Amino acid sequence: MDTKKRMEQLRTMFERVVDPLGYKFSPDEEIVEFLLEQEVMLEKENGSPYCPCQGLTGERDHDMKLVCPCIPFHREHYDAMKRCWCGLYVHKDVKDPDSLIQIPLKEFLESRNKE
Amino acid sequence: MDTQKIIDDARSMLRKVAEPLGIRSEAEDNNKDNSQETKELSLNDTEKGQDKSGNVVILYGLSTCPWCKKARNFFMEKDVTLDYIEYDKADEDTRKSIEEECSSHMEKLAFPVAIYGDDVVVGYDPKKYADLIKR
Ligand code: SF4
Question: Would A43 disulfide with which of A49, B11, B43, B132, CB 3.0-4.6 Å?
Fold first, then answer.
């Protein structure tokens, strides 16, 4: 299938999944287009639209948590960043996605344990 | 934005970095080779700058990750030696060692990962990167 067409299909499907989780597509359309295109490529190569920013190991348990949108598996971490790791999705109230940074998992867990 | 454009942009930026290095290093054959090599950069090559401290920034990324490319561009603009390795394009042994290295930092292969000496920065964060290479 044509890449652009598949990107649009994924966009519609993903929208339905992330909306009830409190997320929306990033207002940074350039990043969104780029990431969706990578996901279509990853889907062609690996069978699912995997995360473009996290590494696949070939182990099922690891990889299945990286099928986009992976938000349910990383919910607390992503909620703390107000974005997913790739920045494809952001919290619905986010207007300026550039102001959000990637917080390493280790740092997130340490700050959570302190609370 | 497409991948080719990012690669082309990165290459043209690299050329800008490599040319002055070429001039500076004309006296040394080795370095001359380096600048030649740098101009012919393909992803996963070592990008040899002239780091005064002799230290190397190792940057692990993915060919599909826009933040990894931003991270790479950040370090390429600085005066550091950068070793950029794409996990998804690497051979089996390299992948295994990246996996081990990342799990030792409690990370589950979330890229980019920048390593400088004993310090590690996971995620694209220009502020942390600037601190990292200042140390
Ligand atoms: S980090 Fe974002 S883009 Fe990557 S798989 Fe998860 S939800 Fe999708």
Answer: A49
How many independent structural domains does chain B possess?
1
| CB interface of B with A, residues 28-57, below 8 Å | none
Would you give the DSSP letter of residue A111?
A: H
pLDDT in tens, chain A (115 residues): 799 999 999 999 999 999 999 999 999 999 999 999 999 999 999 999 999 999 999 999 999 999 999 999 999 999 999 999 999 999 999 999 999 999 999 999 999 888 7
Q: Give pTM, 2 decimals.
A: 0.79
Q: How would CATH label the architecture of A3-114?
A: Alpha-Beta Complex (3.90)
Torsion sign, CA atoms B67, B5, B7, B51: negative
Locate the chain B residue with the closest alpha carbon to A55: B109
Kindly report the nearest CA distance between residue B115 and chain A, in angstroms.
14
CATH number of the CATH domain containing B118: 3.40.30.10
Q: Chain A within 8 Å of B26 (Cβ-Cβ)? A: no
Q: Cβ–Cβ of B2/A34 closer than 8 Å?
A: yes
Whether the bond between B112 and the residue before it is cis, its omega within 30 degrees of 0, is yes
Our answer on whether the CB atom of A35 is closer than 6 Å to any ligand 1 atom is yes
Q: Where are the domains of chain A?
A: 3-114
Cβ separation of B110 and A103 shorter than 8 Å? no
Q: Evaluate whether ipTM surpasses 0.90.
A: yes
